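Hi support team,

I submitted a single chain yesterday and got back a structure, but I'm not sure I'm reading the token output correctly. Could someone confirm the output below corresponds to the sequence I sent? I've pasted both exactly as they appear in my results page.

Thanks,
R.
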Amino acid sequence: MLEFLRTAINLISIIAIPAMILIILGWGFFKKVKVYEVFVEGAKEGFDTAVRIIPYLVAMLFAIGVFRASGAMDVLTSILSPVTNLIGMPPEALPMAFMRPLSGSGSLGLMTEIMKAHGPDSFTGVLVSTMYGSSETTFYVLAVYFGAVQIKNARHAVPAGLIADLFGMLGALFVCRILFSQ
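Hi R., thanks for writing in. Yes, this is the structure output for that exact sequence:
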């Protein structure tokens, strides 16, 4: 059963992105949409959005830098390490779980540090890279994109995003335990 699950996950990971691209192109063809022209128009709008979000991006990156430099990350990790041990998560992966909802570049830097310390093929290295791909930069998205379109009340977006991040992290741990545990 475990070998079947590994094979199924491997097959899905190989065909998922090409299948999505073909489905999008096929749907556009079916609906008689000029896919390339629409793509170029979207890219132009993306550039305008990028210019509008720069102030929010700078503020978010500053706040993340202060959080890491203050040592708050280390304090949170030491407090929560009994919980991570209980669920089978290496305590070295906990900073990734905290940083990922805050910053893509910050979590990428943490992931790189963890991989240098433990190796990219170690369980911890595989886990943090899977966490990186299984979650979103929730606060970054809220601060930058909601700010760019002047949404003042995020309402349910924060809890929904954090719950999704939590399940992404736990899902990454579950899948890595199945596929990569010795």
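A quick pointer for reading it: The mean pLDDT is 87. Let us know if anything else looks off.

Best,
Support desk
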